[in-house]
Amino acid sequence: MSPDQRPDDTPRTSGAPCPGTPRAGTSRVGAARPGGPRSGVRRAARLLAAALLGPMLVACQPRAGETCVSWVDLADEQDRVEASGLVVDADVLGREGTRGMLGVDAHVWEVEVVDVVQDLAGTASAGDRLAVASTPQTCGGGDLYPDGDPLDADGTVRLYLTDDHQLPVEGEGWSLITPFDGVAPAP
Hints:
By secondary structure, the chain is an alpha+beta fold.
């Protein structure tokens, strides 16, 4: 094989050898030689590093079909209301299933409306029961709700909801505007 060829016969873009590979007829000072006393130690160190770092690297990869979203910070009440089609104070009654959202199965909760704060479509009123998807964080490498599902709440909470899905969602219905800013304590 010529110095300009890789083992798979793909031409290199320059005549330089691969990084870390000694040129023919040279050796690196202190380099472990196959079968030498330091080759076993370096191999063990590489295996240990792969065992420790491998799961963390895999955990950062999205699941197949999962959509990764960088969520806008809506920490201000006015911003949350402006981003919502429906804002209600509601009691969370319990989980009622899942809905495909962002390529994963988001938890869906049944809530009972106590008070309507804003309803752009004019579709909700006190006493209504709604199915609300808890928008997942996604791409966190495991748990969709690493800080706990925000709709797993006791008592009356304020919900900032949208049904204007510009993100991949299966089916119709309300969901939290973001995983972080969709639920707040009711005043």
